[in-house]
Design brief:
The structure holds two protein chains of two kinds.
Chain A: E1 9-12, E2 18-23, E3 35-40, E4 47-51, E5 55-56, E6 64-69, E7 72-77, E8 86-93, H1 95-98, E9 100-102, E10 106-110
Parallel strand pairs in A: 1-10
Antiparallel strand pairs in A: 2-7, 3-4, 3-8, 4-5, 6-7, 8-9, 8-10
Chain B: E1 3-7, E2 11-12, E3 18-25, E4 34-41, E5 47-54, E6 59-61, E7 69-74, E8 79-84, E9 93-101, E10 106-110, E11 114-118
Parallel strand pairs in B: 2-11
Antiparallel strand pairs in B: 1-3, 3-8, 4-5, 4-9, 5-6, 7-8, 9-10, 9-11
The chains are: A mainly beta, B mainly beta.
Chain lengths: ~110, ~120
């Protein structure tokens, strides 16, 4: 199973919005409403941001939102803040055999 | 508060078997819908799911690593153990254990990770 496809980098200025895409196939992203997004700061463990496509994890501000269309899921961060600068990974359930597949990660820079 | 902590060797030699232990607290692996899994991240690389064990002792493995992996649980100790056979330098990575929620398999609690280097 190939990794989900994410752009390697994204950027935005404080206060702006940015959207990160995550493209898979009908066997994973397109087949289930089980896409998650994780935020990872350097040297830290990942942190759950979004699960089941659009549900925010506990404590995550509503500036973070998730969506999905076909085989592409998206994470949108509005009102960018400097602390949002991090790596973002998507993941998707991929069926009972492949189970869980991750994206390659997107490095978000807040300019 | 639910926490997980990984422990194991920091250095293993090629062809050796790696054994990692995940000690968790604040939740029970007997709880329906809960799983504990292992994920790794090679330097500068993406996350890679390895294995998970569910509350009912169902076990799942990454298809590409299935022949090398074994995951077990010891509920009396609140531990999950992962063994990976025939280690190679490409297996050098930070290994995380984490709590997963069925059926979506989102990871809502991560351990801090443990770095493993494979070198002779």
């Amino acid at each position: 199973q190939s990794a989900l496809t994410q752009p390697p980098s994204a950027s935005g200025s404080p206060g702006q919005s940015v959207t990160i895409s995550c493209t898979g196939t009908t066997n994973d992203v397109g087949g289930y409403f089980y896409v998650s997004w994780y935020q990872q700061h350097p040297g830290k463990a990942p942190k759950l941001v979004i699960y089941e496509v659009r549900k925010r994890a506990a404590g995550v501000p509503d500036r973070f939102s998730g969506s999905k269309s076909g085989t592409t899921a998206s994470l949108t961060i509005s009102g960018l803040q400097t602390e949002d600068e991090a790596d973002y990974f998507c993941s998707s359930y991929a069926g009972k055999d492949s189970m869980l597949i991750f994206g390659g990660g997107t490095k978000l820079t807040v300019l | 508060q639910s926490t997980l902590r990984e422990s194991g060797p920091t250095l293993v030699k090629p062809t050796q078997t790696l054994t990692l232990t995940c000690s968790f607290s604040g939740f029970s692996l007997n709880t329906s819908g809960v799983g504990v899994g292992w994920i790794r991240q090679a330097p500068g690389q993406a996350l890679e799911w390895l294995a998970l064990i569910y509350w009912d002792d169902d076990k799942r493995y990454s298809p590409s690593l299935k022949t090398r992996l074994t995951i077990t649980q010891d509920n009396s100790k609140n531990e999950v153990v992962l063994t990976m056979a025939n280690m190679a330098p490409v297996d050098t990575a930070t290994y995380y254990c984490a709590r997963l929620r069925w059926p979506a398999l989102h990871i809502d609690v991560w351990g801090m990770g443990t770095a493993v280097t494979v070198s002779s």
